[in-house]
Amino acid sequence: MDRIAKLASQKAVVIFSKSSCGMSHAIKRLFYELGVGPAICELDEDARGKEMEWALMRLGCNPSVPAVFIGGKFVGSANTVMTLHLNGSLKRMLRDAGALWL
């Protein structure tokens, strides 16, 4: 859990992902299209990935990926992020975190 908190606070947007996950790819693509360059932590390419995956599940992220943190705070998984995007809240959160300038 400490490693997740440390990684999540290193950049305005951090996405915990798996390179083979279609939803993770879609969420990363959404942020790139919004003009945000998130930090990506691919759990299936990290030696401690399984441990971090369990910690994400304990946070309430089920399935464990994608898990999105904005401004160091856990936002949620794909459904939550898409809901925030559709209702216009995501851009405001990104601006407040310093990840988006416009």
Helix-strand pattern: HEHEHEEHH
pLDDT below 50 for ≥5 consecutive residues: which ranges? none
Mean pLDDT: 94
Strand content: 15-25%
Structural class: alpha+beta
Strand order of the largest sheet: 2-1-3-4
**Helix coverage percent:** 40-55%
Largest sheet: 4 strands, mixed
Total strand segments: 4
Helix tally equals 5
Shape: globular
Cα radius of gyration in angstroms: 12 Å
Distance between the ends? 33 Å
Main location: cytoplasm
Protein name: Monothiol glutaredoxin-S10
Subcellular location: Cytoplasm
Family: Belongs to the glutaredoxin family. CC-type subfamily.
Write a brief caption for the model.
With 102 residues, the protein is of the alpha+beta class. It has helices at residues 2-8, 22-33, 49-59, 78-86, 89-96; strands spanning 13-17, 39-42, 67-70, 73-76.
Describe this protein's structure:
The protein is built from 5 helices and 4 strands. The longest helix has 12 residues, at 22-33. Strand 3 (67-70) and strand 4 form a beta hairpin. With 102 residues, it is α+β, with helices and mostly antiparallel strands. The chain has helices at 2-8, 22-33, 49-59, 78-86, 89-96, and strands spanning 13-17, 39-42, 67-70, 73-76. Its main location: cytoplasm. Belongs to the glutaredoxin family. CC-type subfamily. Keywords: Cytoplasm, Redox-active center.
